[in-house]
Each structure stands twice: as structure tokens, then as C-alpha cells.
Design a protein that fits this description.
five-stranded antiparallel β-sheet, 6 helices, globular, five-stranded mixed β-sheet, about 30% helix
């Protein structure tokens, strides 16, 4: 789960380049007052743990409060262990998990503001709605259930969705464009979660349907409240990774 598929590495590389170039000129360190400065020194584990949050409770990713936090901490640990600087780790992490990863709203706002100021005004712009869905009680005996979200291109250029991925093998997702449902994508295990050559294109103003499937039989002994996430990767330079969540209570 730590590797990043080839069709998404360019996103991380672009974000990393923005930070490195900005750091070299002194602009990033001056602008991102709520973020650690990029001084070429390897970041400490605690610094990164406290910058990013568990998506279900808002605690630092070191809290080990759920499997999502554990997976994100493991990914962060891998970046830190590789010897990256603070800004390199931050940019890679955000490229994988999106803008909602920040615990500190000030840091998130400053990061987003910087990206907006440097992005073209006629960029593609992804809008996913709603951002979460509560599926209520889900019975193991009931089989697969599904729900839908909508994805709209509110920008001025074509939006290209390059990949979908989920946070667990029990959850899959597909995109319906012009009434045609594409392949299902699952959990990213480092080699991509679906066909490598797949993409979907939305013209300005066009809307697609995101279908999310949950299979309770993947974890037949699991009981209780859980959260699963779906990641939508696109060429939106401000939000390259959009996230939706499903919540449910798995019962007999």
C-alpha cells in the first residue's frame, strides 16, 4: 500500500517540484507560516504525525485509532525513512491523500491558496458531491450494497480522471459517464487498483456518477461502525485527489 502507481506519480512529482522551487526562492517558507519550513533537514516523525489527521476522528495519524490512521502512518513512515525533507514528505502525502489530510485548517488554507495563485485560471476543477454517505445498518447476509456520488467539472478545461482507489478490499468504485459504467477499482496495493490505461474525461459543466460498492462478506466477522474511503485522481491542479467516504454499521 506504500507504493504509488505510475499513473499518479506525476501528481506527486509536480507538487514536490512546486515546493522545491518555492523553497529555493524563499517563497514557500515565507508563505506557509502554518507549515514547517523546508530547510533540507530530514523531518521528524512527530512533526508529520501532528500535521496530518485520521479521517474518521481528526486525531494525529499516530493515534492508531483505526485502520485508516494505521495505513496513513505507515505511508508517512516510508516517506520519512527515505530521507526526504519536510516539504517533500508533505507534498507526497497530500498528493496521495488530498487536501483534507491536514489537521490544521490554517496550513491547509495556506497550501491551497498558494496552489490557486500559481494554477492557471482556465484549469479543470473537480467538484464531488456529496462528500459522504451513511449506509446505516449493513447485514453480512444481505450481500453487496451500493450508493452513488456525483462528480462535476466546474472548470474551464477538460477534467481527466486518471484513477480510482479505495481504502479497503471490501469497497470498490466505478465511474458512469454518459450512461456507460467503467471498470471497478479497488484498494491500491502499489500496482494500481484497475486498468493502467483507463481514464475518463468530463467537458466543462459535465457531470458523471461515482458508484461505490461495499461487500460485507469480505470481512464476515467484522461488527460495528466503520468508515471506508474512495479516492478520485484527476488533473485538477488544486485538488488532484478528491475523497468521498461511506459510513456504515456492520451487523449480523
Amino acid at each position: 500500500m506504500i507504493g504509488i502507481p505510475a499513473d499518479r506519480r506525476y501528481i506527486a512529482a509536480l507538487l514536490m517540484l512546486v515546493f522545491l522551487l518555492g523553497g529555493a526562492s524563499g517563497l514557500v517558507a515565507a508563505k506557509f507560516s502554518a507549515l514547517p519550513s523546508s530547510n533540507g533537514v530530514q523531518v521528524s516523525y512527530d512533526e508529520i504525525y501532528n500535521i496530518f489527521q485520521c479521517p474518521c476522528c481528526g486525531e494525529p495519524i499516530s493515534a492508531k485509532c483505526c485502520e485508516l490512521a494505521i495505513e496513513r502512518k505507515a505511508y508517512a513512515d516510508g516517506l520519512i525513512d527515505s530521507g526526504m525533507s519536510k516539504m517533500q514528505v508533505i507534498s507526497k502525502y497530500v498528493a496521495r491523500y488530498g487536501m483534507d489530510s491536514f489537521r490544521d485548517e490554517a496550513a491547509k488554507a495556506e497550501f491551497r491558496e498558494y496552489l490557486i495563485k500559481n494554477a492557471p485560471k482556465d484549469r479543470p476543477q473537480i467538484n464531488v458531491f456529496p462528500v459522504s454517505a451513511d449506509l446505516g445498518n449493513v447485514s453480512v447476509r444481505g450481500g453487496v450494497i451500493e450508493t452513488i456520488f456525483h462528480i462535476k467539472n466546474e472548470g474551464k478545461k477538460e477534467l481527466v480522471i486518471t484513477n480510482l482507489a479505495t481504502s479497503c478490499g471490501c469497497t470498490t468504485a466505478s465511474l458512469v459517464v454518459n450512461g456507460v459504467e467503467g471498470p471497478r477499482f479497488g484498494m491500491d496495493m502499489g500496482e494500481g487498483s484497475g486498468p493502467a490505461d483507463w481514464s475518463a474525461r468530463l467537458a466543462p459543466g459535465e457531470t458523471a456518477i461515482l458508484k461505490v460498492y461495499y461487500d460485507p462478506t469480505v470481512h464476515p466477522d467484522l461488527r460495528g461502525y466503520i468508515i471506508r474511503e474512495v479516492y478520485i485522481y484527476s488533473n485538477d491542479p488544486i485538488d488532484p485527489v478528491a475523497t468521498v467516504r461511506i459510513r456504515l454499521n456492520q451487523v449480523d
